[in-house]
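pinning this so it doesn't scroll away 📌
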Amino acid sequence: MSKERVVIVGASHGGHQAILELLSRYDDLEITLYEAGDFVSFMSCGMELYLEDRVTDVQDVRNFRPTDFPQANVHILNGHTVTQINADDQTVQVTNNATNETFTQPYDKLILSSGVTPRSLPVPGADLTNVFLMRGYDWATKIKAKLEDPAVKHVTVIGAGYIGIEAAEASRRAGKAVTLLDVIDRPLGTYLDAEMTTLLAQKLTEQGVNVQMNAHITAYTGDTHVRAVKTTTDSYPSDLVIQAAGVQPATDWLRGTVDLDQRGWIKTDEYLRTNLSNVFAVGDATLAYSIPAGKQVPIALATVARREARYVVQHLFETQPAVPFKGVVGSSALSVFDEHFAQSGLNTFTAKRAGVSVAKSFFQTALRPQYVPVSQGNPQVYVQLFYHPLSHQILGGAVLSTYDVTAQGNVLALAIQQKLRLEDLADADFFFQPGFDRQWSLLNLAAQHALGEVPFQN
């Protein structure tokens, strides 16, 4: 009997996890992974660490090397682009990018983890030299070279989301004059509510970043090299432009074959199956089921891709999976110079986009008892909670401080995943030690505050 053939498209988080799960759970498979890029598999979320010389080597900023899987039944081919699915005979068409040779690969099960591509603004001058994107190995090494070039003095970053903030901070730490532009009204405005983004915008300004929001970019100007970024109201000198203006699903090759929504995200059912038999989809290019939103939404996170891949492989050979994919919360964290935050689930922006009603509470306090002075490590901490206005089910939250309280974001994620209420979090049993926290822990106090209780003072 021949081995079952599993083909994986894409070598990022979902593809990597799929191989790990397949090897852990099954003995008799032929596993083939195709990756269009030459480098397997760069972790763009580690790019800021690389740009700031905080990694061992750029070659190490990856999920895995092909040599990490020496098994005879695992075949990892980088520089190979899958261009077509032939569902009737269960094959994919593959092009070797180096030789331009095209061949057909049969599959019994196909896992799509095709990911996303960075978005370049469709404005005049986007093809000028030194207009870069902030994603992938090739762009990372190009940006690194420019940040080390003393001739590059002015860096303009387009986009004030996570990637744009990382680019701005890395550029400032490299000694560049940095301007941060975005069409939205505040940095990180799609991730956090205004109470926290106000604090972070102040931090960026204090660190020398020229923050310009509500900026509508009309052109990149220059001769062959970019010299400035023009908006409807101003012009900003630029020796380097780093575009971090969002991503789009890398799914054009699937149109007319796999069901996509109007924006190109792959549609799947509750078992992560596409409309094609034996074809599954995971990762950034899919619509993920959000537990707090109660619906499928785009959530481009490594943690989501890995959980989806784990689920798919667990149920890969079941005619009808025993249970549906239980969904994800969507959690992330970021440092903005010496401020650290973590967020999970919904906020006002994402709740409105998902059509979910939320109430919210913002809480500020000291991390430790009042008798511990600020100079001894007792900074201010901030907590935002989002919850259902009637049931008090916790739907989202965020924590922020100069002290690293990001682990509290994992507590919030668990509370959201388990559909806890404010009352549950207000009573939750956490440890106390005054060198770390207070008798009622930070999230206890935040939930009690949201419930309108008399505040605990020490």
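📌 and the second one:
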Amino acid sequence: MSTSVSVRPSWQVFCLTPQLQSFYNAVASMKAVKDSTNPNSWAYWVETHRANCPHGVSYFLAWHRGFIHRFEAKLREISGDASLVLPYWNYYDSPAIPPEFLDPASPLYRGDRTGTDVSGALSYDAFADTVLRFQRGKTHAFETIIESRPHNLVHNLIGGAMSSIRISPRDPVFWVHHANIDRLWVAWLKAGGGRKEPLTTNTYWSGNLYYGPAVAGMPRVWTADTTTYLGYHYDDETMPTQSSSAALAASAMSGSATPLRPATRVSVPFGKSRALSLDEQSLNVDVALSATDAARVRSLMLQPAAAGSAGDGPVRVVLDGVHLTGLGHKGGYFYNVYLNLPAQPGTGKAAGAYLLGSVGAFEISVAQMKASMKGMHDMSGMAGAAASQGHGARLVFPATDVLQRIWPDNLDKLSVSFVRVDGSRHPAKGVVMKVDAFRVEADPSM
């Protein structure tokens, strides 16, 4: 157990302390070492994340808590500053990337970022009173929601290395972003109100976390809290509140104001597929339902939430063969995906009621990595990985919960809206994403 407790401050506080120079020195020193097998190199931590990080599966939060803790210890060792800690970037208070990361003379600078403001990522969904359970697989689970938003969305809006799971730790802003995600976990648990994670005696915490061959792993139970074994806490451990200014900036995600549905551009029959291209414009797809289709969807809406196919739900929006263009790989954007978003505001429901999820370069890179790993496992070789990536990513958005929440009176069609959100005032124009086969499908009614 830890005998002393350090305090991780916000970046705004940290950058005014002598430890800022220690941080600069450590980062510069690690970047100068090119051997990716050496934990004193920046590349070691990038490769460890690529090879081991769990995204879209259990222990996303626990693994990253241990990861940034081990990285913090390495910063302290290399800098020779025993008081150096890893600060967090509180983008709920200051959504613009801190200026120290934008100075070309700074070791924190990267020239590939395509966005500098993450206001559009500021979801408050993970902090709702209904989000009481922690682990993935439970309904209204904190880990699942916070990984999707704001975590993924911050990666998307910054772009560059941050938009790819394979190389995102190359960007120094990765570390202060993940420190903030870790802080938000602490804040969620401390808020009480029925919020809880499994007890430390629960088998959920059994096993160990791995951080590559040259850095010590740690028991999962060490990550159940930050003070007992890891020896740190944050200077602010309160959940963010939705101020009026932040609400306006994040309205497309948080649902404080219902955005207009994009003008209808394309249509497709229910259960049939069509190709899509996504660019700087938002897009709406009308999915026509026959009377038989409508009756089937209505029947599935009446079933308990647990009914239907495992994981994806009985009604779902499917994107098969999703590819990024060269422009799309640069990131700096994402699309909120809505079902039956009203054409006009003032319906009485917030936009979040219609939200299926989000898709950007980061989500696609995660899907491709998971497909590669599955392909390598299934085919026992790199051919499987190449084949998986060659066919593009597959993304599935369960739709039954949204249908039950909004309960449309008329089911002659379903409208799926891709609402574009950018991290720059001057986003690049052009096609960023191509979808080989978009469709809305459903299980046979029971």
